[in-house]
Design brief:
alpha/beta; Rossmann fold; three-stranded parallel sheet
Length: 107
């Protein structure tokens, strides 16, 4: 049975516990994140942990995109210190927002 590309093949307890170096070695070049309740609590700005994560991902070589069902001001507020590509009003879980993110990242 073919795996759905929009459904995870692994479950990890926290975004911050993912082995991104291994993913890069396996050929992945883009990372898509939700913001609220994935990187920070709902409505919170980017914290030091999130800022360090995105610096690390960029150093590894990943393109990064934030995909959110929130409105543009919320996503831009979080992204001020992250500097990733963004997709707002993504209508997740529909695939259109993810496809737009992949286009922005060139993946």
């Amino acid at each position: 049975m073919k795996q759905n590309p929009f459904f995870p093949s692994e479950l990890i307890s926290s975004t911050y516990r993912i082995d991104f170096e291994r993913l890069y070695e396996e050929g992945f070049r883009g990372i898509i994140f939700d913001v609220d309740n994935t990187l920070v609590p709902h409505g919170a700005p980017a914290d030091e942990k999130a800022i360090r994560l995105f610096k690390r991902l960029k150093k590894i070589g990943f393109a990064c995109c934030l995909v959110s069902n929130n409105k543009r001001p919320r996503v831009e507020m979080f992204n001020r210190q992250i500097h990733a590509d963004i997709v707002w009003l993504a209508h997740k879980p529909l695939p259109g927002g993810y496809r737009k993110a992949m286009e922005k990242m060139g993946t």
